[in-house]
Task: structure prediction
Amino acid sequence: MSHDSTYKKSHTCKVASIGAWGSYFPDTAALADMLNAPICSSDEQLKEKTLDEKLTEENPAGKYSAGPKPEAIPANERRRAPLIVRLAVEASWQATQKVGISPQDLKCVFVSGLGDTSLTDYMCSVLASDMKKLSPTKFHNSVHNAPAGYWTISTEVMGAANSVAGFEHSVAVTLMDAIIQCNYEKAPILIAFYDAPVAEPFKALLKNEHAFAAAIVIYPEDSDKEGTRLTMELSSVQQDAFQESASQESASQQNTSINWPVLATNNSYLQDIYTNNPAGKVLCLLERLLSPAMLSSPFTLPVSDGVSIRFTCSQ
Amino acid sequence: MKISITDYNSCSAAGADIHRLRASLSSQVSGLRSNDLSGSDVPTWIGRVTDIDNVHDLGVWQSRNNVLALIGLASPSAMGDSIQHSIQHLIKQLGRERIGVVIGSSTSSIDRTEMAYTDLSDTKSFKPAYQQPRVHNPHAPGLFVAHHTGIRGPAMTVNTACSSSAKVFATAARWLDAGIVDAVLVGGVDTLCLSVVHGFDSLQLVSASPCKPFDATRDGINLGEASGFAILQRAEDAPASQHTYLTGYGESSDAYHMSHPHPEGEGARLSIAGALAMAKLAPQDLDYINLHGTASRANDSIEGKLITSMFGDAVPCSSTKGWMGHTLGAAGITEAIIAFDAMSTGLVPGSLNLQCLDDDVSIDIQAENRILSCQHVMTNSFGFGGNNCSLVFSRGSN
Result:
């Protein structure tokens, strides 16, 4: 009964479109250019080719460091929208515009590994003071599903919207969950991955310094929609292949024992996102979807301490 | 869809385990108390779990939220010694990688982050005792539950505010149907903390008195804390002795406002209709509905009018938030358990503190408990961001 042969070993969906945003790339095409840039001997060389150096010098946090201004959110709401909301909505809007489907016809799953540490910082600072007076708008924006809320409100989506977290496994568990939901409910799904730089007091324990968002729209395996096939297969990890991350020691730090797939690009900015931004782990999928030469090379992501998922893309 | 519930437990101010919850429900004794949360001066009532304050030995996992999870996992469950004992049994039977974890929460362990901020170092960073990355993140309850039970299958935390731990049932049903796991431990864990008490106070949503869901004179919510757990398996894999099934779910969005429900309850209508359709039931087939019923002016008016239009007075309804308050991310599973436990016990709880029903509402609701034989029950959970989930549970033979 434990490994029931009546159940499918693998699950497949079709990726129909991609949206992406980072402080140095405003869209998927710009990200693809960075991923496909020739491998350079030094990061400096790469920087010259891909970044606007003048702006970079003026503003090391990135050409677009103020964050995206997604047109999907009405201007008056956009001003009050937190960065992670704008990140998620920008990537989601790009992905849905490209696939030619109304957002209203998409269920959605939103994931962030770190949540909104800027709002947490605001709330906890106020609550640690004598005057515990919180802004009501900041309070309702502090829920983890604020990005999903703004998305569904802005685009008038009345279907199912999920908002999840999986710490360093955020990307793998969300892909897994969304692929299963897509086929179970026979419906296309928008998946948004996003994490923002962590607020100052968190920096000793959560490393991320880059804003990053990506979104994909997936269709069921048997859909007529054109798209890249993405197949996942789960397998148990050998007991000795991972350290006892459930132990008390390792709980005090981020799990560094995992062998994450190697990202082909040597762009240090993208490597930093991939290493430290939990949502950035999706770059190993985007690299395959955006670089024809890499498409057919499978990659394996851990989804928990005991299970990993092998992903394979094909046309 | 037919997913079996093979064990469950609930921990809240109305009882630190399912057996004590049953006793509180039966005797109509509320667990609410005047706000005595440390550091909070908001004049309101809260549903605090006093046992939490006695546990300080979780080491790097220490947080109020994780202690609350621990109590729910360790205290006597409905069908076994405890949830953690039932999981140990399943691990032997299925393997620890074949069991999943899906936990709902709105605050995760933000109680611990609040505490870290009261004691920051000179450089405005967390002192060593609070350097707990696995606690200060939204997946904290999922990580802790997997760690404590020894489950090594896929683990996820759902954070959709007050619908979080209703949606975990839908997620688990899909994971089981796909065959990626053979059992899922679903749960909801949310503790009282300054963020929620002062946050809801900033929205002028808390009542200075014990909450009175659906009463004409209701004036706001009482916050509470709870943990709840259920073990879900495919019906064909479950022991023949169990007869409680998840038979339908509906998930929807309001597309209206971050903190105010859709004025006509359109999102809620979609989730209720979706759950009935999946369970292949007509509205009058339900024997009990556990309402979201927060006791806020807006929620109860909108939900009450919607239930009136969809069900009339054909189905007994109640809000049970008068017992333990609004437990936010744990409310979904707390009320799911109350609803499906009624199919086992025959005790349909009343709507505690209801004296005079709101004029706009015409549903079958009363303060007194009833003894009823229930075949199908529903529970509703609606959250910030306009996030809705309705669940249908049914009793039957395997």
User: Anything to note?
Assistant: The mean pLDDT of chain B is 97.
